[in-house]
Structure prediction request, 395 residues.
Amino acid sequence: MSVTISSVEHARKLARRRLPPAVFHYIEGGKENERTVRANELAFGRVLFDPHLGEAIKRAETKVKVLGREIAMPVVIAPTGFIRIVHKDAEPGAARAAHAAGIPIAISHLSGAPARDICAQNDDTWFQIYMINGREGVKASIELARAAGCRVLVLTIDLSAITPFDRISRALPSKADLANAIAFLPEVWDRPGWLLALLAGGLTMNCPNAPPSPDGGAMAVGDVGKLLTATPPTWDDVAWIRKQWDGPLLIKGVMRVADARRALECGADGISVSNHGGKVIDGVPAAVSVLPEIAEAVADKIDVLLDGGVRRGADVVRACALGAKAVLIGRPYLWGLAAGGEAGVASVLRLFQRGVAATLSAIGCPSIQALDRSFLRPLPDRTIWNDAPTVTRFD
Ligand SMILES: Cc1cc2nc3c(=O)[nH]c(=O)nc-3n(C[C@H](O)[C@H](O)[C@H](O)COP(=O)(O)O)c2cc1C
Prediction:
């Protein structure tokens, strides 16, 4: 599918037009009043550049080494669950687009395509796990990740309950049967493109990378939710998981210096400073506002990544100047996927690549490695960073 996307906001607008409202809100929505979702984005605008003049940078170097491998720019596709409902290209399409852009993709424990099929598209595939079904479930998932050829294990530790979002008035269907099709009809009758693409991808909506269901088959979307939050991981579990996996281990969802230190003590190779894109708790600070203190504490020992609110190449450069090795992007790639499948993701990634290079040149910095705080103005205080409007209506 050919698609022209001029900005991440443009991709969002196309996604809004193409997706049924329930699916669009599933992507964009966050917890309660979505202050944290807004804060994640707005905080980047409060990090001001301080360009170095007279440097005449012709072609800035965007490559960077993350968790032991060089990648084309400091951007990784974030793990996002249930995306088969966004576009039939789903994870394999996004993995191909990421590969073409020279970057990794992290796939969700709740992804809809088998991990080995995704790894076949991108040899830098990261596998994200939740603590589904306790240590037994984790063991099975790690074996699956290893057999599929995933390079990095991502353990998400910040999800302990799944509660409804204010803006989502009806749950997404957990399986494609007649009853769900009828219930969902008012949402989709005027979006035939989305419906045809969904049907072309087949009717199953399982989670083939989650631990097997009790009958030994793939876990259905509806079952996973129940098991997911039964046993959120403790630091003992993190240390145990470290022993089960030889490759790089990234802990996702760290928002405090003390927890970053715990992750380090448990043997993690990296952390992602993250509030789950504002989807878990409303009222925690913007991820980028806690990045400087966490990077100061541990970035000399482990790779510090960041996710939440990154919307353009300039935001990537801001995060790296504040001490991040790289960022993960969630909603921007999903909007691209909704707008044009694999080609839409490729388009969004090109925008990021150009944006990172152009921003480096504009601030007189020759490479990502050379970025530091001298390219930024002094930071505002935390209350200003997190001053975001409360969203009370979801039109
Ligand atoms: C639709 C959607 C589904 C998500 N599913 C997962 C998931 O399965 N596992 C996980 O660790 N994070 C999940 N996340 C969180 C993302 O990995 C990431 O932390 C967040 O999207 C970053 O914020 P951004 O969307 O502003 O870039 C999800 C996010 C979205 C938007």
